[in-house]
Each structure stands twice: as structure tokens, then as C-alpha cells.
């Protein structure tokens, strides 16, 4: 269904991977792994047909459903339901159905009759595309991803970022594409939804390429692993499940380490011998060749070693804060007429670790975003004298 042959991918001048070949066929459940920045997202985007590799080719037969890591916002005036149904081209018929339904109630007999004819046509189109069964299938997928009916009827512009992403995921899953490409699908999902997704992907009859930090999901769904090794700029294909892959990769790395050690020893021996032979005029040319060869071997190793280095990051020691660095009194928040919470008071003592729990859409992010939290506490500065709490915030 997807064939990748001798592909090279770059970001600017930097080669992310070269000479990569693999296939994704029906029933393949592939976990694409590799450290951050290795190029997993870039590869997946190319697999979806967006962009051209620097070399080699990617060909696909059959349909591909792609969930990008950062979905772009399209038309946000449509409802969630309509967006999901668009995956099978049902959104247009549904829109015409709803419009005709409204106009059928018109007092003007001519308008009502025209609407009736349009309704019949739209209903036929809707039915031809799988119709009501498909609509309920879409709603089931959405519900399992934490999107109830009420939310599906709202335009995307009124949904939170997390809800929109879930609509996108629902759309891709509903599309029933021959191959699914999911770039971190569990972002923004709660535990129940993740569990449901695992089951869905296990049973999925088509091909799948998934990138995920959720090890349980990878372990339970994949039967092949593609390991994108940023150091060697290549992909190792493991035709096995997760547990076997971990063992096999460890063995492969140990083997490569041994090979490097052997190369180092050989290079050192060559260098030593070259230095010794250099003194004799008759052997000077040979000695030079040996030393050059040794240097080349070492340079190759150095390249690998340098790339393996990881950035060393120091976190500054935070300034001391008061006994109760965070306090809020009587917090309320509404979006329009929708009241998210009222009269919330809290005090968080130094050293305590607090978890904020609540259903999706309950207002957890909203609470964290509120000024008091983002900018430290102003109100209580008198009570915890000298307190300064620089807060960092990760959305
Ligand atoms: N927006 C960007 N700005 C700068 N560099 C980027 C950007 N997106 C990707 N890159 C480069 O491309 C490389 C691969 O990125 P990506 O495909 O997102 O990796 P992954 O998905 O494995 O984390 C990164 O290491 C980085 O060098
Ligand atoms: Mg990525």
C-alpha cells in the first residue's frame, strides 16, 4: 500500500535519514520510534504525500488517513460532526438535509415543496454514502474519544484545542482509509479514550504507522518497529513486536559498540606502528599511509561519538518563596453564558504537589491559564511577605 525506496530526507542542508526503504501493507501495524527531532514527523508527512523526499521515491496505492502532529486549522465554522463526516464525503449531503428540513416547515407552499424535493435528493445521496449507519458509527467513535453529541453540534471555532484535535482523530479513524498515519494520536486524550484507541487500532484491518509516547499503545498494537536512529541517519526495520524489538536493538547496539572498540584498537595499533616505522627512510611512505589510515578511522569514530552527545542543561535554583506561594480567592470564569467555575478558593503550600482532576472540558486548562497562576500571586503578597513565585507554564 505504501512503498518507500531508497529515500533521503533533509531539513535544510541537514540529512535526517538516507537510503531508507520499507513497505507498509495491509495488516502491518508499525511503530515509528526515535528520539525527538530525529525526523519522525517529517517522514510521516512525506508518507502522507505532503512534500517530496530529497532522493528516492514514496509510492502509495489506496487511501491514506493522516493525523499530523500539529493539525492545521481549516474551516472552523463547520460543526464537529460535519468535519468528521467529511472523511467519507457525507458532510455535504447532511448539510443539505438539515437545510431542507428547515425550509420544509415554511408557510410558503412553493418553498416547502421545493425543499421537499431537495430533501429527497439529499436523503438519497446521504443513503448512498452509508447514510445513517455511518453517522452513528461516526458518533460512536467521537463519543469514545470524549466528544459527546452536544459537542459535535458546535462549530469548531467554539471548541478547545484538545477537542478540535480529537475531532481530527475521529475524522481519520472514521475515514476507514487503507493506511492510517497517526502522529502522536494520544495527545489530548484521557485514559479511557487511550484505552479505547488501543483496541480500535488492534482490530484495524488496514495498515498503520503510529508515532506515540504511550508505550502501552505501542506494545499492544504494533507488530513491526521502525527505529529512526538520528546518529546514523538511518532507519532500522524490525519485523517483530515491541518486546522483541527492545531486546534485539540492545543486542544491535552492543554489537556496534564492540565494533567501535575494535576499530579504535586497530587504529591505535596502526598509529603506533606508523610512528615507529617513520624513522626509517625506506619505510617512510608506508608509515605515512598507515598513519593516514589510522587518522581516517579515528575521524569516523569521532563523528559518531560527537553526534551521540546530548545537551547538558542546568536548571537555575529557584528564588525562595513564601510558605504559601499560591493562593486564590473567589475565582470565577465563564465563556459567554457557559459558566466554567465560580467562587474557587485555594491555597497551595510550598512543597505540596497538587493534581487537578476533572472531565474533559471541565476547565482545568482554563484554571491554570488564569492570571493568578501564570503570573504568581499578587493578592497574597502581604500574607507571605517577600514571596515571589515565578511560575512557568506549559500548555
Ligand atoms: N519548525 C522547525 N524549525 C526548525 N527546525 C525544524 C522545524 N521542524 C523540524 N525541524 C528540523 O527537522 C528535524 C526533524 O523534526 P521532526 O520531523 O519534527 O522530528 P520528530 O518528529 O522525530 O521529533 C528537527 O531535528 C529539526 O532540526
Ligand atoms: Mg514529531
Protein architecture, described:
By secondary structure, this protein is an alpha/beta fold. Among the domains are: 64 residues; 56 residues, no CATH class. Adenosine-5'-diphosphate binds next to helix 1.
Question: Descriptors for this entry?
Answer:
binds magnesium ion, extended, single chain, 395 residues, 13 helices, 3-stranded antiparallel beta sheet, 6-stranded mixed beta sheet, alpha/beta, 20% strand, binds adenosine-5'-diphosphate
Structural class: alpha/beta
How many beta-strand elements?
11
Average pLDDT, rounded to a whole number, is 87
Number of helices: 13
Q: Which percent bin holds the helix content?
A: 40-55%
Bound molecules: adenosine-5'-diphosphate, magnesium ion
- Could you tell me the strand content as a percent range? 15-25%
Order of helices and strands: EEEHEEHHHHHHEHEHEEHHEEHH
Using only C-alpha atoms, the radius of gyration works out to 29 Å
Question: Termini distance?
Answer: 37 Å
Blueprint of the fold:
Elements: E1 2-11, E2 14-24, E3 29-33, H1 40-47, E4 55-60, E5 64-67, H2 80-85, H3 91-104, H4 109-128, H5 131-144, H6 149-152, H7 161-174, E6 179-183, H8 191-203, E7 207-211, H9 215-221, E8 224-229, E9 234-238, H10 242-277, H11 284-308, E10 326-335, E11 338-348, H12 364-369, H13 371-374
Parallel strand pairs: 3-7, 3-8, 5-6, 6-7
Antiparallel strand pairs: 1-2, 1-4, 8-9, 10-11
The structure holds adenosine-5'-diphosphate and magnesium ion.
